[in-house]
Amino acid sequence: MEYTVEMRHIVQRFGEKEVLRGIDLKIHEGEIFGLLGPSGAGKTTLIKILTGQLRQTAGEVQIFGKNAGNRKENLSKMGMMMDNFGLYERLSCYDNLKLFTRIYDVPEKRADEILRRVGLYEDRKLPVMKLSKGMRSRLSLARAVMNEPRILFLDEPASGLDPATAAEIHKLVQEEKSRGATIFLTTHNMEEAHKLCDHVALLHEGVIMEYGQPGEVCCRYNHQNKLLLRLLNGKMVEMSNNRTSAEKVKEYLEQEMVETIHSTEPSLETVFMELTGRGLE
Amino acid sequence: MKNSAAIFEKQIKDTLKNKEILIQFIMFPILALIMEKAIKIEGMPPHFFANMFSAMYVGMAPLVSIAAVIAEEKEKNTLRVLMMSGVKPWEYLLAMGSYIWSFCMAGALVLGMAGGYRGRELMIFLLIMAAGILASLLIGAAIGTASRNQMMATSVTVPVMLVFSFLPMLAEFNETISKVAGAVYSRQIGLLIGNIGDFSPKFENIFVIGVNMLAALVFFGWAYKKSGLA
After folding, report:
1. CA B29, CA B222: separation in Å to the nearest integer?
2. Do A88 and B2 touch (CB under 8 A)?
């Protein structure tokens, strides 16, 4: 199977309001796909449709080649980490996972294995109410991967986390990808998307504005197409990114004057702003 | 069934750490134990406190507990996570219902023992309590299902619980209230408990409890259709 998820012209209306307006997307098996957009763009609505929590107004969604509305068949292959963690506050980390070992019919020792993997084994007896936000994120992710899902939905997985904890979450997501899982994540963190995702889609007001590999999307909007050099004397030099600049760059390099050198392709955030006239926050 | 058993076990652990719910289960049985031992007034009917608290227990503990637990699970998103893990709504409701019913029946056993019921009388007492607890469970489950969060559930549960738990007691002291309370299951439970000595349930008792249960079932069905579980 080439695609894990296929969406054809998905429309979602809530009363008069059209939240999704004809979404067409294909997500390859084993890739990390990032859906980017500001709050209210329709990201969570799309996840709800994909996970069978919501029936789309129009269009067709297939997961593993089968209708997404067929929850019974798809649920056992899915893992999910929502922005609201859905953890039992009074229960310990271990008890939170133990419940799901029984639901997923996996050996109880898997709870300990996963707690070790997410770095919470030492805190396994702590009640969730005493965990930090980062620890809750890791526990929520641990539960999501308990059944070794074929597709993992992550809704803002590193939102509000410090860089070190976010990096831990990213490492775990990469490990899941290495296992062969397809990962569908929503985020408005452009750095996270650029670092993690094989493909991204920019969603704005229910429409996919742009799709592709993060670097490729940025290059498409590299209107300036320049090189920016910072020299050791503190001077900034801007020049065209073509053969006419080659000699000059070579000269700076030979004289060992270059401190940094960058091309001017925009960031995903800049692309988003160019397309929509607003930021992602 | 394995899912129901897992949720049942989880809920026991959770309740032991949840004082608000735990107190619902033990408050009236402990009060009955203390009052039955400590207060003796001449002319007071036998098992007075145990009987009165039993009717109040039926109208309060199951109703408040199940509404609070379901509403909390909805508010904290844990119910959605369960549903997304393949737990079916009936498995969840079976687990919650049987867990609260079991805890309340343990409380009912303490109430019965405190009232001095033994043998056949105790069995009848428990049977009556079981029916009343079931009716309250259905009402509480409907309120919990219809509510988006705990605050919303509490704002509905408190007045409903006050009506069902205090009507049987107030009916003892006022003729008019007694007539109105006759249409309420908790009053009928109170009347049945009061006549355990020569237990012969009347058509009215069974009819009122049956109609109340049916109405609660319809209410639950409506709430489930309107809001769903997650």
Report:
1. 33
2. no
Asked if residue B56 lies in contact with residue B165, where contact means CB atoms within 8 angstroms, the answer is yes
Domain residues for the domain of B48 are 2-227
> Is the Cβ of B148 closer than 8 Å to some Cβ of chain A?
no
Domains in chain A (CATH in brackets) are: 3-85+149-218 (3.40.50.300), 223-264 (no CATH)
ipTM, 2 dp: 0.88
Q: Could you say which DSSP state residue B44 is in?
A: P
Separation of alpha carbons A268 and A276, rounded Å: 12
Beta strands in B63-221 (DSSP E): none
Partner-chain residue, chosen from A76, A78, A90, that has the shortest CB–CB distance to B14: A90
The total number of structural domains in chain B stands at 1
Contacts of A63 by beta carbon, 8 Å cutoff, 6+ apart: A4, A5, A50, A74, A77, A78, A151
Give the tens place of pLDDT for each residue, B147-174.
Answer: 999 999 999 999 999 999 998 889 888 8
Q: How many CB pairs under 8 A join A and B?
A: 61
Pick from A78, A85, A102: which is nearest to B6 by CB?
A102
Closest-CA residue of chain B to A91: B14
Q: What was the pLDDT predicted at B53?
A: 93
Q: Are strands A151-155 and A78-81 parallel, antiparallel or unpaired?
A: parallel
Closest residue in A to B13 (Cα) is A91
